[in-house]
Design a protein that fits this description.
Blueprint: H1 3-42, H2 50-73, H3 81-103, H4 109-137, H5 144-165, H6 172-198, H7 211-224, H8 228-243
Helix pairs in contact: 1-2, 1-7, 2-3, 2-4, 3-4, 4-5, 4-6, 5-6, 7-8
């Protein structure tokens, strides 16, 4: 990798890291403000007033959006970053719509956007789940079949639920099928995340490297579209082979 390429990849990695920090800061700040508003409403004179109820609903909406955003941030900076950005945009749009429903004076607004809002919530939840799966297990080759099968199940569940929201009249088999797929989706998610987080080989050696070098390593992995641990392993193998190769003759 020449100097120009190294500089470019390093800059790109730094930009992604900064983006992640900004989104994280905005998420934490937003929910902190909403939480303070909710506490103030609960400690107010009349917690059952219309304004207090709206403030509490706002706190719940922002809190849920914050959790989904954190799930989407898991893949930011890696090769699945576009999925995370899509999840963030959908979650942001859903939150804006939720706040509009909470604070709007129009009594007919819900009747116009109820289906859209429900599908948006479904899409936000599905994308957050997919981001968790890809972020925690997407870089492990041995888990690839399980990970992508679970991602497919999540998308199927989201699609089937969205169809029901848009007044699809299901037969008995459809409902049974949705239940089976949903159960497999939950099972696959639990197993994938558990193996992705806790199922690492204890014989593996964990090496800590400086942040600057880690950023360069992530940039190279992103450029080549390969897992970071695979790139690091190959580099170490090449370095050890070159340094400790048996002398010729």
């Amino acid at each position: 990798m020449d100097t120009h390429t190294a500089t470019t990849t390093s800059t790109t990695s730094t930009t992604r890291t900064d983006l992640r920090r900004v989104v994280l800061a905005v998420t934490i700040s937003s929910f902190s403000i909403a939480a303070l508003m909710g506490i103030a409403a609960l400690l107010g004179a009349d917690i059952f007033s219309e304004t207090s109820v709206k403030i509490l609903a706002t706190t719940v909406a922002v809190g849920c959006a914050s959790m989904l955003t954190l799930c989407c941030l898991v893949v930011v900076g890696g090769r699945f970053q576009p999925v995370g950005l899509l999840g963030f945009v959908v979650t942001l749009g859903t939150t804006v719509l939720a706040l509009a429903l909470v604070w709007s004076a129009s009594e007919s607004l819900w009747n116009h956007v109820d289906q859209t809002f429900r599908v948006a919530v479904t899409a936000s939840l599905t994308l957050a789940q997919v981001c968790l799966l890809l972020g925690l297990a997407g870089s492990r080759r041995r888990l690839a079949p399980l990970t992508w099968s679970t991602v497919a199940l999540a998308l199927v569940v989201g699609g089937m639920v969205s169809a029901l929201i848009y007044d699809y009249q299901p037969a008995d088999g459809y409902v049974r099928g949705l239940g089976v797929v949903a159960i497999l989706d939950v099972l696959g998610t639990l197993v994938t995340i558990a193996l992705g987080v806790f199922g690492r080989d204890e014989r593996n050696l964990v090496v800590t490297i400086p942040p600057a070098l880690a950023a360069r390593l992530r940039a190279v992995a992103q450029e080549k579209g390969r897992p970071v641990d695979e790139i690091a392993g190959q580099l170490l193998e090449d370095a050890l082979a070159g340094r400790y190769a048996a002398p010729a003759g």
